Amino acid sequence: MTEATAPAVRASGVGKVFATRTDDVIALTGVDLEVAAGEFVSLIGPSGCGKSTLLRLIADLDGASSGTLEIFGRPAADARRAQDYGMAFQQAGLLPWRTVGANIALPLEVHGVGKAERAARVAELAALVGLTEFVDRYPDQLSGGMQQRVAIARALASRPRLLLMDEPFGALDEMTREYLQGELTRIAAETGAAVVFVTHSIPEAVFLSDRVVVMSPRPGRITDIVTTGFGPLRDERLRESPDYFARVTAVREALHGAPVERANER
Ligand code: ADP
Ligand code: MG
User: Fold this and answer.
1) Relative to the CA of 262, which of 6, 118, 205, 255 has its CA 20 to 30 Å away?
2) 72 closest CA partner among 160, 159, 8
3) Is the CB of 51 under 6 A from ligand 1?
């Protein structure tokens, strides 16, 4: 397969064991997952099921104990060096002494992009995340939601084809969270980037995703995948549609076991 047609992520038989002083923790076992270029995939599951671990393996921040991981058809380490992905976390992690613009520009500076090109790219990114008026402000002058938008802009600075996000809206209030979910679907569609998005929230996963990957702990593994079939255009009306409720129910049942099955067990 050529790189152009390769999936954004291909995990085959991926396992991860953490050796601790007392015993071995099987964080992941037998994970097979393909994320297509431009696809939005959420990882959902209870705390400790290995969501962050899987994201870190994709990002090559840690190595798998077994199996293989490819990013756009090449080893994760190569993809990291080529800046094939950008990352965002629950904490925006902005440098407080730098302006919004200078925070967004940081990855470009690190990779030696010239001043004029940097300025043009920062203007483009600030517009993309709706912060044009705020490029000269400092992080502590922004709300939590605006800080996350800066973090997303920074993650997109090098035009990655893959965005890895670990509960990026987890610390925000519900209103801001829903607003940024809408913004993120728009940004993903405009940039064409694939997204792997870790969350605890069923409604969030369903609203954002083409597919919701359901995981379970001990040992961490994929137990179900729910396809939403919503297409790239999402607005607030989606949240009130029967299709949306049906997918929320499907993910909830995949996470907790279907109520019918539980009734039969009694
Ligand atoms: P999640 O993000 O789904 O909450 P994690 O991927 O953070 O879960 O963790 C999965 C499991 O691996 C947990 O049991 C956690 O305690 C364990 N784990 C994660 N990182 C380490 C580590 N560096 N050393 C030992 N155990 C770890
Ligand atoms: Mg986590």
Assistant:
1) 205
2) 8
3) yes
